[in-house]
Design a protein that fits this description.
1% strand; mainly alpha
């Protein structure tokens, strides 16, 4: 019996170790590539530990006018005139505002779908979800025409509105599911004590809904942070986000692997910090309502 248990534990340990290696190896390779000199990146035999670590890749991305990357071929010179700080700053602003609007509007809409009774409620809710099923490529042209007509191309407002359109249906449906797990009697008790629907939402339900709100916000944040198509079409230089600026290192004469790895590593820090900070709420939110009493 002990031998079977030992074999079972050993097998589990091996499986977990393999999964961890497969998961962490790309991250390790990204970190290593970001500090490698150019000559060690494209060698025939992979170099796992750089012999001469350097921060020149980071300098070339965030201070291109002073870095050696500015003189290298294969990277558009006009793209290097906009430092990596601009892309990360734009991504943070656009992501936070679009996520905040999606959560704020989604809360009110989800409360209405979950608590209020009106004609066509379920049909309207399904129609709202169906808008999430459209591939972004099918609507990018009309959105670009509208943004161009209102002279919003290459502005943060254009991206905020575009991301809000795609985040809002997801936000409403996620939050609606969390609302249904909260007993309706809590709302009724609050309204008996003199609260309105908004008062019951703010004072009673909202504190109970924090895990669900954080989970929804994280998903909206990740979508907005990683989104590439809208950011590519709706921006030029000033409003470029992190994913678009990463693509600038794909030149006609080659790929700048070192600067791309450095920029990719720097751009992955904000979502990672957010996930770590909200880890406790993330676990609670994902399992919210999973157990019925």
């Amino acid at each position: 019996m002990k031998i079977k248990k030992l074999a079972f534990l050993t097998g589990n340990f091996i499986i977990i170790a393999v999964v961890m290696i497969l998961t962490l190896l790309p991250i390790f390779w990204l970190v290593v590539t970001s500090i490698k000199p150019a000559g060690e990146i494209t060698t025939r035999v992979p170099i796992f530990i750089p012999t001469k670590p350097t921060l020149s890749n980071y300098k070339g991305v965030f201070f291109p006018e002073t870095g050696s990357l500015y003189q290298k071929a294969g990277v558009a010179r006009e793209m290097l005139s906009v430092t990596g700080w601009v892309g990360i700053k734009n991504s943070i602003i656009v992501t936070l505002l679009s996520t905040g609007l999606a959560i704020g509007i989604g809360l009110l809409a989800a409360y209405a779908f979950a608590r209020l009774r009106f004609k066509g409620r379920d049909t309207l809710a399904f129609w709202l979800l169906s808008t999430k099923m459209f591939p972004p490529a099918t609507v990018i042209l009309p959105i670009f025409i509208m943004m161009n007509r209102f002279r919003l191309v290459d502005t943060q407002i254009a991206l905020i509105l575009a991301y809000l359109v795609f985040n809002l249906p997801f936000s409403v449906w996620m939050l609606r599911g969390f609302f249904t797990e909260i007993p309706r009697e809590l709302d009724e008790c609050a309204m008996v004590d003199g609260c309105s629907h908004l008062g019951a939402l703010a004072k009673i339900i909202l504190p109970l809904l924090i895990p669900g709100i954080i989970v929804t916000a994280i998903f909206c944040f990740i979508f907005s942070w990683n989104e590439f198509l809208f950011a590519l079409i709706l921006t030029r230089v000033k409003a470029q986000t992190f994913p678009v600026q990463v693509s600038a290192f794909l030149g006609v004469k080659g790929i700048q692997w070192g600067p791309m790895a450095a920029f990719g590593l720097a751009g992955s820090i904000p979502p990672l910090v957010l996930a770590i900070a909200a880890q406790r709420y993330l676990v609670r939110g994902l399992t919210y309502g999973a157990v019925k009493e």
